Amino acid sequence: MDRVKTSRLTGAEIVVRCLQEEGVEYVFGYPGGAVLFIYDELFKQDKVRHVLVRHEQGAAHAADGYSRSSNKVGVCLVTSGPGVTNAVTGIATAYMDSIPMVVLTGQVPTHAIGLDAFQECDAVGITRPIVKHNMLVKDVKDLASAIKKAFHIATTGRPGPVVLDIPKDVTAAVTEFHYPDSVSMRSYNPVRKGHAGQIKKAVQLLREAERPMVYTGGGVVLSNAAPQLRELVKLLGFPCTNTLMGLGGYPGTDPQFLGMPGMHGTYEANMAMQHCDVLLAIGARFDDRVIGNPAHFAQNPRKIIHIDIDPSSISKRVKVDVPIVGNIPDVLEDLHKLLQGAPKNDLQAWWKQIDEWRAKDCLRYDRNSKIIKPQFVLEKLYEVTKGEAFVTSDVGQHQMWAAQFYKFNQPRRWINSGGLGTMGFGLPAAMGVQLANPGATVACVTGESSIQMCLQELSTCKQYRLPIKIVNLNNRYMGMVRQWQEFFHGNRYSESYMNALPDFVKLAEGYGHRGVLIEKPADVEPALREAFASKKELVFLDFITDQTENVYPMIPGGKGMTEMILSEEL
Amino acid sequence: MTRHIISVLVENEAGALSRISGLFSARGYNIETLTVAPTEDASMSRMTIVTSGSEDVIEQITKQLNKLIEVVKVIDLSEAEHIERELMLIKVRAGQKEREDMKRMADIFRGRVIDVSDNTYTIELTGDTRKLDAFIQALEPGSILETVRTGASGIGRGNRVLRV
Known about the structure:
The complex is a heterodimer of chains A (570) and B (164).
Chain A: E1 7-10, H1 11-21, E2 26-29, H2 36-43, E3 49-52, H3 56-70, E4 74-78, H4 82-96, E5 101-107, H5 123-127, E6 133-136, H6 143-155, E7 161-167, H7 168-172, E8 174-177, H8 196-208, E9 212-216, H9 218-222, H10 226-236, E10 240-242, H11 267-275, E11 278-282, H12 288-291, H13 294-297, E12 303-308, E13 322-325, H14 328-339, H15 348-358, H16 374-384, E14 390-393, H17 397-405, E15 414-415, H18 426-436, E16 442-447, H19 457-463, E17 469-474, H20 479-488, H21 504-510, E18 514-518, H22 521-533, E19 539-544
Chain B: E1 2-11, H1 16-26, E2 33-38, E3 44-53, H2 55-67, E4 71-76, E5 82-93, H3 99-108, E6 112-116, E7 120-127, H4 129-138, E8 144-149, E9 153-156
């Protein structure tokens, strides 16, 4: 691609050329009237490969999973009207978890906008609250720079999805093509370096801490700060917890790791969060599923240092003492420099306390059960895959058990919809993960309710020969809904029972995959071993699990971090 | 809950206004008034937003505004010395009986009668929000036919300047 020489291209050619310039490998999409010129250009080249999903929600989730597992931008292409509205759930999912995506949406021709044309909807209006930014490109002359901007905005600062709405006539119009090398915007200049004075204050607090705690979130994963985090935590000798979005940010098997905090976090992580005297929060946002009730959290005085790229995440739910706005790896390196050689904190009493909390063994479950326990399946999944799989999940009990029982030693291996909590995310996300990581082991942990929300993508998996292993924890209930109804709604299981379930084995076979039904605990491990030995085919493992199992510990909504419900004595 | 006047410099692009008003509704922030028009640099608009909330909420409002890609600069004018003005056009009953009184009332508030008919006056009045409120209060409710207000525009005093 010659950047200097300009040539006259159509809008559709420009779209494809820009994607090539950005090094885009895959576009996840679904054609339709408004994007036909773009699809025609995709047809004429082979650099950018298109993955045809079966529903636009799948396109957005697949692009999202691709991005999360690879640190590249996920790209999707959908048509106007229903193409856009179908993608909305996927865009909102990416937005809530700050995933860099560029979503190209077709639009009716500019002369038809506003006239209720066929397949017209206000894509920019509909997506405005669920994107980092969006733009309607009305003039082909602005197209290349808009695409450059979209990639720039999606990937810098706090990442997020950007929607570009492109009317059909713009894709047909012709202009000189020149792809800008860089973007300069007076209104958008994300910081990198943290404030030196604030970093010094943080160092002082960390050195004086007697009961320190490191609490990290998705920001560590997104900013690729896992190596810097590991070095800093090792240097300090502090305990560390990773949120649902941050798992893998710190090695899950390391003795300094206390597990996940929050509503279904470990006893030790929650107790340490509440009782620490200095809390170092990194790329995490103190959300309701982590700290519960902020007033309860504030009852224990502690000094809080908060590192985040997004100033609006700081002091939003919890007042912090030392805010540091900056790119996490840079800030952690600065902290490391200043802390190196400092005398070690005496943490003996604190670790003794933590070990007492650990002794609660809060994740224990009945290992002698005659019925398959979901936790058992996930423990075996961890063993069989040696902890090295990419694991996507849907939303509900299975998601929490996966987060509790699969120990992630590396970032970008655990792919789930943490913020929006989108059922149906797991399977299409796994497609993106598998395409981004050919040859890697990819497991989609799901439940019989979630999997049915994007089931059609089994067809896409067949078309692109994606050997995903679906681990379906089938308890014939919307398990998490059932659990809340048991705890808080007097056992009235209103509409949470899954009746008339399909035969998942036959269903998988109907799509050309292999299906396996597993009903006994003794069959769990052999079934997993056999499935994961196959590198070529998708296997749908339908585990019939205990219907009444609950996720423990649990902090009821609105309660504090120490007000956990623990599993019954076994 | 205190009243704050927030000034925003924003790229003069399609959709910027709805992005800002959408932010306020999506996050449950108040908007009492919002005015917007281009500045001396036509590529930029300046917005004055009158809002109210606790200190925490106002902090979030300014941070969230700053986060919008098209927003170039944000300041909370009410943090320091500033001036605010609002324009009101008010159409009042002014028949033979009321004409004198109404003119006198307008004079007291330094308003100007800018349109006259057999039985109405339209009065133009500028001032801060409280002054316009006071004028409305001072009139017989039955004598007001129509009111239109621009919402407050604000500017910092002296050397306090909001520019790129």
